[in-house]
Amino acid sequence: MTEDYLDISKSVMISAPAGSGKTEKLARRYIELLKNGSDVERILAITFTEKAAAEMKERILNILKKEDIELFEKVRGKMPMMRISTIHSFCLKLLKRFSLDLGMDPSLKVMDSFNADILWNEAVYECLIEDSASGERLFYEAIKDSGIRGWNKLYSILGEVHNKRPGIELALNGQQSSISNQEYFERIMSIYSRCLQKYKNKKIQRHCLDYNDLEIMAYEAISKNPEWQNVLYSFDEHTDHILVDEFQDTSTLQWKIIDKLTEEWRSGAGAKRETGVNPTIFLVGDDKQSIYSFRGANVSIFKNAKKRLTEWLRDEYHFVEIKENYRSLPAIVNFVNILFERIMPKGLYDDYKVEYSAFDATRKGEGKVELILLDSIGRTKDNRRAEAAIIAKNIRNLSGNYRIYESDGQRICNYGDMAILLRSRTHLSIFEDALRKEDIPFVVVKGIGFYNSPEVCILRDILFFLIDPLDDYSLFNILRSPLFSIGYDTLLKVVKDIFIDDMPIGYLFESLKKYASQYPNTLSLQHCITLLDKWLQMAEKTPYAMLLEDILSETGAWSYFYERQRYVNVKKFIRLVEEFEYNGLAGLEIREKLIRASRNSDEAKANVNTEGMNAVKIMTIHASKGLQFPMVFLPCLDEDSTAKSSSSIVMDEDEGNIIIAYEDDSNIRKKIPIFQRHKERLQDEEKRLFYVAVTRAMDYLCMSGVWNGSKNKSPSGKLAYIADSFNLNDVDSTAGLPFKINKAVSIKDSDQSPVAGSQNDSLRPLSCSLPNNEMVFIQPLDYKPSPIWLDVTEEIDEIRKKHGDDWIILGRAFHRVFEGLSNGYITMDGLEDKVMAVLKNEVLSNADEDRMRDIILSDLRKLDASGYLKDIILPVENSYVELPFILDMGNRIYKGRIDRLIIKDMQEAIGNRQKGNVHRECRESRSKGQAEGIKGKQKIAYIYDYKTYPISEKEIPELMERYSFQMSTYKKAVERLFSIKAKSYIFFTHEPRLVEMV
């Protein structure tokens, strides 16, 4: 291979395919600069992640230690001065270094994405409130134009626009154009500009920046600021060489920064050349691995940079294309070459399309590529379950049998050599379940759903109770958690038998104390109350983060969180709380931030170091980039990879101009060129994503999917790429293919399907023994997918949007009054005084108080006249009010409160129906046989969910549909808890109207 990239007299750009050792080449170039007299502080190396920067430093030092000990000692002494960092770290240092010249606060710090999202949400909601108060009604007009789901749509669009920073901000400051719905989109952009300014002001108040700010401000500092020439001159004085790793992941703005920093170098003049220094640029990457367009990466920059450097530097620049692959065995390299030469052909003139060049395998050995095809029965979930089962069996049989190659020969593989790569996390739980059924240890790498994990839910409930001891809901969850495991029976007795002569909010803890004093033999409950009391006292003077650590130790909770993923999630949560406290947030402010953050289901779980872990790794293809595995399983190839043009906003950066296009109608988008170009580019990225996936494999690649190809129908997804490239019209004819096809048996018989991948016809587990004195430590692994915890709650935003804030306040007040009436500590005799006492905690002005009191009293009179007050709300035997529950449905755990539950004898229920004095709107015609069947049963539970806002008759069908899931969940919870049949009703108390859910 040519060593031209080590010629430091010239600038170099390297196209280095997967597995070609591009990081090694960057390290060698860096060392060559050192050997020729460059100082570490005059070399700037930019990497994609902080981890990559650390690995780069380590690699440079390891090479020097082996090959040049004298230079190694010199460089090691200057390690703090090595300028190897991410582009964001470099921009921050640049801004801080010239903060006085730029008029910046030098104490600025960078927020992580978690805090940035919270701050952005605060800015949007505050702008909404200010817009309402000012009377400008920009928000109102935008919401009105969007129909019934106006706020959700507007909020989503604002988030979509915000995610396109920094490009969107550059467009706002320069030229922009929009396509279709011009007036509406201009209103959106006006709202966004206002929210963005509010967001910026909040950051200034907190002395913070986000990652986008770093790039925008750094570019403006070297291009637009009055001091830009001084900044560039100073940078040029201190920097002779720039090296950029993973260049294909560069965004347009990042390339503009690099371009501006090196502008004078390309002129062929300057002070450097007069002193004999020849400044250079070194770029290394692989445009076939550009898969981060959603983060702003622009694949066209790779081709453009190649052209520009040729024009600018001429003889002082050369382009190097690496041909060697040091990662994969020949079978895999051969398959990749044939496939991608056909789906990424040369001779394309679009800068967004990449062209494939074949590379050569250097490793000795054979390797194996297989394609498992399943017959489809039509249902996607069934197909995925069958496919996951086959892959799990394959993995189990390969472990301990398949031989993989290493530098000194071969060895038997284990689970730690294997990885399952998924396009998305849609079917993650299915693959987890399949591995668990086969007793295969696994770990999900870079998973999401941090706030829904059980360990975080428990910690959040503990924290919320410490912040607000009146938070009954959080307390109930703590009591039912493994920390205390207080039974439902005990809690139901407390709720039913013990009442505090005060308002209902926050009565649970005092009720527990009263119950425990009356029943001193309840030792577990006594212990629980003692601990909770102690924690509340400690919370008055102990930081919450420290107290959570103490609670985990005192309760032995670490025994439940021993599994590594759960352990690091707990640590991440405590660090978040610690950071909030460090920034001076009070308890209620922390609670509010965590409530908002918990709405983000995509929040990443804490990172787990899987090195040395004997477990199958499951991850997305995006997360696998930069990694390699001896054995790779790539399922779901039949999933449609055609990019959906679902985004209503597209930002195009062609030819230096930023064009923002908006169109909500998907049918119209199909006719607009910019949306079609965007769709095509996403389709091209799917090909690059496929390339990244298959090139992770070192020894063994197993692909799989459902074969739905026929004479009248082509296969879908990435299977279509394979079928078209290799003419797989007949999957039974596999002669001459660079891979083996294994057809699985019918999906219904997948448990007996043949297992692909074995090197021998009969598979036998490898028997092995360990030396007598060898100690073996086994890291415990949790094979079960972590369940997702979900609240079954009413959509407050929908009520606020349609009926206003007053009905939110009235809703809370009604629920407290109804609860008091049901429990007996509010009576009809002193009703007005109690209603006023409730409202004093909810409203500010006397006028609002009087108006809302009249509404509540009027509705109660209607309920009394209709008979519903007596039949449903007032005290009755075998009834519960505000009943909390947790419903475990496997992968999902639902929690919530049931407003009212009445358990009746079946005979009584039938008698009441015949008298016609209850459930007037719920009568149902029954045959004689049906009635006889019911009489034989003992009990039936009636579930009532209060909806206190006004409705019209025509709204009822839509509301029944909206609340159907909530009510069915209530019904399942009650039937499981009491082991009886249940009926559920929505009770519209303002009308009044009772509607049965069926």
Set out the fold topology.
Layout: E1 11-15, H1 22-35, E2 43-47, H2 50-67, H3 69-76, E3 83-86, H4 87-97, H5 99-102, E4 109-110, H6 113-134, H7 138-145, H8 150-162, H9 167-173, H10 182-205, E5 208-209, H11 211-221, H12 228-238, E6 241-244, H13 252-261, H14 271-274, E7 280-285, H15 300-313, E8 317-321, E9 324-325, H16 330-343, E10 360-361, E11 368-375, H17 380-398, E12 403-406, E13 409-412, E14 418-422, H18 428-437, E15 442-444, H19 454-467, H20 472-480, H21 488-497, H22 508-518, H23 523-539, H24 544-554, H25 564-582, H26 587-597, E16 616-620, H27 621-624, E17 629-634, E18 649-652, E19 659-662, H28 666-669, H29 673-694, E20 697-707, H30 717-726, E21 740-743, E22 788-791, H31 796-803, H32 805-823, H33 831-840, H34 846-866, H35 868-873, E23 879-888, E24 892-905, H36 906-915, H37 928-935, E25 939-947, H38 956-962, H39 964-978, E26 981-988, E27 993-997
Parallel strand pairs: 1-7, 1-8, 2-3, 2-6, 4-5, 6-7, 9-10, 11-20, 11-21, 14-16, 14-17, 15-16, 17-20, 22-24, 25-26
Antiparallel strand pairs: 12-13, 18-19, 23-24, 24-25, 26-27
Helix pairs in contact: 1-2, 2-3, 4-11, 6-10, 7-8, 7-10, 8-10, 11-13, 16-30, 17-18, 19-20, 19-26, 21-22, 24-25, 31-32, 32-33, 33-34
Organism: Dissulfurispira thermophila
Binding site for ATP: 16-23
GO molecular function, one term: exonuclease activity
